[in-house]
Design goal:
Radius of gyration: 28 Å
CATH topology of the largest domain: 2-enoyl-CoA Hydratase, Chain A, domain 1
Strand content: 5-15%
Number of strands: 19
Structural class: alpha/beta
CATH superfamily of the largest domain: 2-enoyl-CoA Hydratase, Chain A, domain 1
CATH architecture of the largest domain: Alpha-Beta Complex
CATH class of the largest domain: Alpha Beta
Distance between the termini: 43 Å
Number of domains: 3
Shape: globular
Number of helices: 32
Strand order of the largest sheet: 12-11-10-13-14-15-16-17
């Protein structure tokens, strides 16, 4: 029997081999057609007396990437439409029934009376891993690249195919909650130690080992369906259980400030489900899943962190007329922290790197950064010494610019000073080929003006990495006024090769990410100047959903850099372009106190050699006014910190700096950690509604000044009841 997505072969022993192999896809995913076919196969296995058991495997290099989240996004839209046309009760019923189909199929596999074995031949994520958990035995083929996990929490969901209930019955509750709430991807050795898989065998023996388990009497009953089954951590209301759930709730609130409904639902589903028989527990899981699926947080996170990110990663902004360019060798100018990081991620992707600095010793030091990073991976068991040696062999450190002659792409990452950069550009362009693309990793200097030092401005482009390069997933690509499509395409091809997410913006002061995050930092400065306690500013920043408070973030990017940017802005645009209170604060910290941030161990925080960082006590002495924290509206502080960033994003769209709303959202989350539960800066506005957002900005402008005054674009959208995603639909951009 052959379906579109599955092949079913029954051997002479009556064992069905179910091979999942979706046509036209590099990886299997779960969509409506897959569920329909799999359900029919499960029924055949269950009802055909000639079938003794079944093995579920994949015909691809990986097992399954999880559910097709675009399907879930469509389901959410259908719910909204049904609510309008048929009422909320009918919409809720439809959503509940549709969203639990995978859970029902998995449960039918588990209780059909025939043994099922998962033969896992590569990565299994999300719903795919949930299907393996419903099998009675799990065997994986030896593969260092295999990862197993339930990462749904990262897109505002939780496992809705039975994963929460099976994991909570396989692991002690503390381990189960950690696994579900972190969304970690497990290597095979870790998964086996946790007893989430039963065996690891050579790839050539995988299917045979799975069939042998059935032949030798493998049981067709899950442990939790056997009378007398005991939960690994004891009952919820036992002493052990009560040592887990109350602290888990406290930890959840400390880490999320209750901004993530899916994380809260995980705690509820596990807590309630462990008190019920499996079928009832699965129904509880499905009800919570349907509830979370229709939450605005899930809708926003799925759109930005899955659908939009996937489209950008696949080249949504790449000029279609330019043939693909294989980036085989790059040159990196500057072997400091940023340059060394760029060299590392490039070599990790199999690209040869020429790493240049002023002398051999400095260049060698840059290469040593890669040695350290790879050694850390070796020590953690994530790489071998052979992997390290191969990567290091791809990096050639040298002070000789002539070594750049056959590079496809040059990335300048020298000190953020125009003269230093222009000197590096001049040396490089005398050595490189006529087809090589030149990229500048600048975060503040306009690309168009830097390109003036390059002979062929069409080949000059901005390629802005974020620190630390090896961990930050975003790369901001900046088009200068003369940048050509060939340079843009090459930059995008390179970013795809190093497996990072690109956004494309037009040249302006601060581009997009630096321009927007600067407003967050400035708002923290101004709150401090107003007399808000520094600790309150930092805590409210995290409560609003940011990864760190604005003062801590300024320390990370350097306080003296903020001072330098402010002075340059004032010199170029005049005193009206800056806030005098921010100028006074930064001048005091940098010029008078020598507090530059983390890099010299003192900024808004002190950084003792032994012990964690702590807010500098002297900050209070810089405040001429000190407000009583009990009189401060915390919600208003949160609104200020988020609204000012969203407002600047809207201005970037109005100014033509950002031309794709997807990039504004994805860039804000990946670039500076804008509250992920909102879906990004633009989704934050759309989720609130343009009118409500404009009204909020109007109130804040009256209280705190014209920086909160909404631009004409937003005011027009508010009058017309528009959203950014409807006014600037990405689909129309792609069609154009």
């Amino acid at each position: 029997m052959t379906d579109k997505n599955f092949a079913l072969d029954i051997d002479a022993d009556g064992i069905a081999l179910v091979t999942w192999n979706m046509p036209g896809r590099s990886m299997n995913v779960i969509d409506a057609a897959v569920m329909e076919e799999l359900s029919a196969i499960v029924e055949r296995v269950a009802t055909d007396a000639a079938v003794k058991g079944a093995v579920l495997t994949s015909g691809k290099d990986t097992f399954c990437g999880g559910a097709d989240l675009a399907m879930l996004e469509t389901l959410s839209r259908t719910f909204a439409e049904l609510t309008k046309s048929e009422g909320e009760l009918a919409a809720n019923t439809r959503l509940f029934e549709e969203s639990r189909k995978l859970s029902q199929i998995a449960r039918r596999m588990e209780t059909c009376g025939k043994p099922w074995v998962a033969a896992i031949n590569g990565t299994a994520m999300g719903g795919g891993f949930e299907l393996t958990l419903a099998c009675h035995h799990r065997i994986a083929s030896e593969n260092d690249k295999t990862r197993l996990g339930l990462p749904e929490i990262k897109v505002g969901l939780f496992p809705g195919g039975g994963g929460t209930q099976r994991i909570a019955r396989m692991l002690p509750p503390a381990d189960a909650l950690q696994f579900l709430l972190k969304g970690d991807q497990l290597r095979l050795n870790r998964a086996k130690a946790m007893k989430l898989i039963d065996a690891v065998v050579p790839a050539g023996d995988l299917v045979k080992a799975a069939k042998d388990w059935i032949k030798t009497g493998g049981k067709a009953t899950a442990p939790w369906d056997v009378d007398g089954f005991k939960l690994p951590g004891g009952a919820v209301y036992s002493k052990a259980g009560m040592m887990v759930f109350p602290p888990a709730n406290a930890l959840y609130r400390r880490e999320t400030y209750d901004n993530y409904p899916a994380a809260r639902a995980v705690l509820q589903v596990v807590y309630e489900g462990l008190q019920l028989p499996m079928d009832q527990a699965l129904r509880v899981e499905s009800r919570y899943f349907a509830q979370i699926l229709r939450s605005p947080e899930a809708a926003a996170m799925i759109r930005s962190l899955f659908v939009s990110m996937q489209e950008l990663n696949k080249g949504a902004r790449r000029p279609a007329a330019v043939p693909p360019k294989a980036i085989k060798k790059i040159g990196v100018l500057g072997a400091g922290f940023m340059g060394a990081g760029i060299a590392y991620v490039s070599a990790l992707a199999g690209i040869d790197v020429v790493l240049i600095d002023r002398d051999q010793q400095t260049a060698d030091k840059g290469k040593a950064h890669s040695h350290k990073l790879m050694t850390d991976q070796v020590n953690r068991g994530r790489a071998t010494t052979a992997d390290r040696d191969a990567l290091l062999a791809r990096i050639v450190p040298t002070p000789d610019y002539a070594a750049l002659k056959d590079c496809d792409l040059i990335i300048e990452a020298v000190f953020e000073d125009r003269k230093v950069k222009e000197e590096a550009i001049a040396k490089a362009q005398d050595a490189i080929g006529k087809e090589a693309i030149f990229g500048s990793n600048t975060s503040t200097l306009p690309i168009t003006s830097l390109a003036a030092a390059f002979k062929d401005r069409a080949r000059f482009i901005g390629i802005h990495f974020f620190s630390p390069v090896e961990r930050m997933m975003l790369v901001e690509i900046i088009r200068g006024k003369k940048t050509g499509d060939a340079a843009l395409a090459a930059a995008l091809d390179y970013v795809r090769a190093i497996r990072k997410t690109p956004i494309v913006v037009n040249d302006s002061r601060g581009f997009y990410t630096s321009r927007v995050v600067g407003t967050y930092i400035r708002e923290g400065h101004l709150m401090l100047a107003e007399g808000v306690p520094a600790a309150m500013i930092e805590n409210v920043g995290r409560m609003a959903g940011m990864p760190v408070g604005p003062l801590a973030l300024n320390d990370e990017v350097a306080v003296d850099l903020a001072w330098k940017i402010l002075k340059a802005t004032e010199a170029d645009l005049g005193p009206q372009a800056i806030d005098a209170r921010q100028k006074a604060l930064l001048e005091e910290l940098v010029e008078k106190r020598g507090r530059y941030g983390r890099k010299n161990g003192k900024g808004f925080y002190d950084y003792p050699q032994n012990g964690p960082k702590r807010l500098w006590p002297g900050l209070a002495d810089l405040q001429s006014t000190k407000l009583d924290p009990d009189t401060i509206d915390v919600d208003e502080l949160k609104q200020r910190l988020l609204a000012i960033q969203a407002l600047e994003s809207a201005r970037c769209i109005e100014d033509g700096v950002v031309t794709d709303v997807r990039e504004a959202d994805v860039g804000s989350i990946l670039g500076f950690g804008f509250a992920p539960f909102t879906g990004g800066t633009i989704s934050y506005i759309d989720g609130m509604g343009a009118k409500a957002f404009v009204d909020l900005c109007g109130r804040l402008a009256k209280l705190y000044g014209n920086r909160f005054r909404p631009p004409k674009l937003l005011r027009d959208m508010a009058k017309q009841g528009e959203t950014f995603y409807r006014r600037f639909p990405p689909e129309k951009r792609r069609a154009a």
